[in-house]
Structures are given as C-alpha cells and as structure tokens.
Amino acid sequence: MKMHFGFLIILLIIFLPIKVYGYSESLSIIFSGEETGNLEPCGCYEGQIGGISRRYTLIDLLRKKKNVILPVSLGDLPKSSGRQEEIKMEVFCRALGEMDYVLHNLGEKDIEIGPQLINYLSHTNKTIFLSSNVQIDDSFPVKINQYVLKECPVSGHSLKIAFLGILSKSLLNNSASDYVNVNDPALALKPLVKQLQEKANLIVLLSHAPLEESIKVAKLFPEIGLIITGHNIEDPGDSITYVNNTPIVSPGIKGKYIGIAKYSINNAVVERKSVEVIPLDSKYKDSLEMISLLKEYQQMLADEDLLSKIPQVPLSNDLSYVGSTTCGMCHKIVYEHWRKTTHGTSYSTLVNKGYQYDPECIKCHTTGYGYVSGFLNYENNSSLINVGCESCHGAGSRHIKDVTESYDVTDEGNCAVCHESEHSPKFQYSEYWKKIEHPEEILKKMPKTIE
C-alpha cells in the first residue's frame, strides 16, 4: 500500500506543474511595413540589407523553434501607382501569404494604387486586410476587417491576441478621397478597444501614422499593449518609445528591418519579454521560396513588356540619340577605353541577374531610357545599351551632323542622377571620375558635317 502511495506521489510531482502551475511558452509578434516597392536590395553595392528572401528565412528560423509566431504587416507595400507597382503589390501579397502573415494593415500607398486592385486582393489574397478606420467605396464590397482576433492554443489555454489597425488622415492623398473615407482614429478605436478588452489577452495596434500621432493614441488607450507605428523612420532601432508601459516601435522603411516583440505565456497570462528591431543583413540567407517568386516577378515584367510601355519625354531642339558606336567612329581611343569600364558593361550586369526587363533598373544601365529616341528594348535599340557617351554628354545627333557644333561637357550633376544616396551611397565624384576619365586623343581633321 505504501509503495502504491509513493508511486502516486511521484506521478503528481511529474504532472501537477503542467495542469496546476502551467507551462511557460513564448509568443513572438513579427512585424514589417513601409516596403514601398522594395522587394529586395537592388544589388548596386555590397552590404545592402533587407528583402523578402531574408525575411522569409528569419521567420522560418523563429517558427522552427516551436514557438507561436504571428507575423503582421503595417502597410505601404507599393511606392506609387502604375503597372509595375501593381505587379509588386500582388507579389508582396503572395509573399506575405507564403510567410503565413496574419494580416496586412492598409497604408496610404496601398489605397492610392486604386480600389480595383485592393478589391481584387481583398478577396483572393490569403492574408487578411485590416483597417479600423478606413472604408473603400467600390462597385463590389471590399473585404476589410475592422479588427482581427487571433486565437492561439498555448499550453492547454486558448490565448487570444486582438489586432487593430489605423491610418492617419494626414497621409492620404486628396486624389483618393473620391473612393476612400478615413474616420478619426481615436473615434474609431474607442468602441473596438472597449469590446476587445474583454475578449483578448493582448491588444496590438498597427498605427500607420507619424510617431507623434501614435504617442497620442497610446495615451488615450492604455489598454493597448503594443503599438507598431511609422512613418518614414529610417533607423527604427533608436526610435523605440514607451508610453507608460506600452512600447511604440517601428519596423523602419524599405523592408530593411524586421521587428520582433517577444512574450512569455504562463497560465494564459501574457508577459512582454523584449521588443527589438533586427536588420536583415547577409547572415540571413536568401530563401529558395522567395528567390523563385522574385524570378517569377521579373518574368511578369518581361511578359508584359513594361520597358516599351513607359512614357517617353521629347528631347529639346529636335535632338536624338545616336549610340556610342557612332561616337567611336571619330573618338576611337576614348571609345575603346569606355568599353572596358563598368559604364561600358553596365547592361550585362542586369542580363547576368535576369533584370534586363525591369524598368527601374534599366534606366541607369542604358542610354536615354525614358526619352524619345532613347533605349526602349534590346531588340530595337541594341546600340543604346550600357551607360554610353550620351548618358553623360547628352543626345549627339546635332554634333554628328556638324562636328564643329559645341557638345555638352558633363559634370557631377549628371552623375548624381544615378549615383544617388540609395543606390550609390559611397559615391565620391573625384574618386569615381578617375575610373572613367577619358584618355587623351588626337583627332584627325574631320569634315564639317558627317552624312
């Protein structure tokens, strides 16, 4: 009898902590936002951070730790309107779906891309669209949730996390006012917070608004346990703010960072452990799943021939581009030197990566793209591939017709068109100029005009 009683005591010691005292398990809320069209680093220089491929890898690593992972998106997947941005938004939404995002809070860039696409994606996308204070008018009802209540079974308990989302009225362009109604965020949140306070173990707000507005909301609603905010915060790690005990944190811009709020769970009690923002650097390898999706994106650009559909701006004085080969007829030494520079091989760098059909990339790797007579596609304008003579000196048709006609001299301003802070942050004119500076040449006496 005593033996049986002792065995029962051992069993109680083993199993009681699980049922009575509970088992501590962790929950991570992963957040991103304000990608503004940046699916991946452009690759123009080493050390770039960000991209959906690295993000997928990080989320996958966290998920493999067997913790509860809830990824959410703050808003602004595209940068502007236009067909390429529409394609990007579709690709982004597919990426969010493959990463099992719980929701996407609508930002002003998402809305300004147009009600038709938002409507289509709201019904076909795996990820839920969220907004507590935005209504979109369309011929067919747009599917937008005022809140999302996510139920997570943890240690025998049903843990409920409530997500609310707002958009600042100050951010939306007037052009969208015809089909969008943005209510005052505080008025929209008040009844929802009251309702969810009784249902949820934790309330999270995605506040697509400037930090100052999010701070005001935090003061009005102390019931909210986490506020994910923007807007245009470039260094999110240094901008984490607390109002009482509520952290207000941004994922940064252009998809360069990912935010993680970690919680421990004990008997359905949620306790915040940490809030951090992590740069998506090279330690996170590109995922095969997202590499495949990005290749599909480039193929979509090629299939729709977006290169040829860009509006072309007329050149002044009836000028036109003639191509670097034509320049080389007289400037042989300079031409041969140019061919061996990175300018002279810039188009091949796109071909090697499969980006030669991407309008965003092609403009800085060809001559005259976006102008009448400039590069449009390889089939029709192979003489205008690469950063040629006319990229720096201007269209050369007048100089070709009359070689005595003065020709534009380049300066640092021309370089800055492509060598700007986002794509060429280490650009130093004096140092870069040494790499392309023309060798001296002696020109033969040429006829005044060339037919």
Would you kindly provide a written description of the structure presented here, covering whatever features stand out?
This protein is α/β, with parallel strands linked by helices. The chain has two domains: about 20-300, Metallo-dependent phosphatases (Purple Acid Phosphatase, chain A, domain 2, 4-Layer Sandwich); about 310-435, Flavocytochrome C3, Chain A, domain 2. Helix content is about 35%, strand content about 20%. It contains 17 helices and 14 strands. The chain has helices spanning about 1-20, 50-65, 85-100, 110, 115-125, 185-195, 210-220, 290-305, 325-330, 330-340, 345-355, 360, 380, 390-395, 395-400, 410-415, 430-435; strands at about 25-30, 70-75, 105, 130, 135, 145-155, 155-165, 180, 200-210, 225-230, 240-245, 245-250, 255-265, 270-280. The strands form three sheets. Strands 4-3-2-1-13-14 form a six-stranded mixed β-sheet, covered by helices on one side. It has a six-stranded mixed β-sheet with strand order 6-7-9-10-12-11, covered by helices on one side. Strand 13 (about 255-265) and strand 14 form a beta hairpin. Helix 3 (about 85-100) runs antiparallel to helix 8 (about 290-305). It is elongated and about 85 Å long.
Any chance you could write out the topology, listing elements then pairs?
Blueprint (H helix, E strand, L loop, with lengths): L1 H20 L3 E8 L19 H12 L4 E6 L9 H16 L4 E3 L2 H5 L2 H10 L3 E3 L3 E3 L10 E8 L2 E11 L12 E3 L2 H13 L4 E7 L2 H10 L5 E4 L11 E3 L2 E4 L7 E10 L2 E11 L8 H16 L20 H5 L3 H8 L6 H8 L5 H4 L15 H4 L7 H5 L3 H5 L10 H4 L13 H8 L15
Parallel strand pairs: 1-2, 2-3, 3-4, 7-9, 9-10, 10-12
Antiparallel strand pairs: 1-13, 5-8, 6-7, 11-12, 13-14
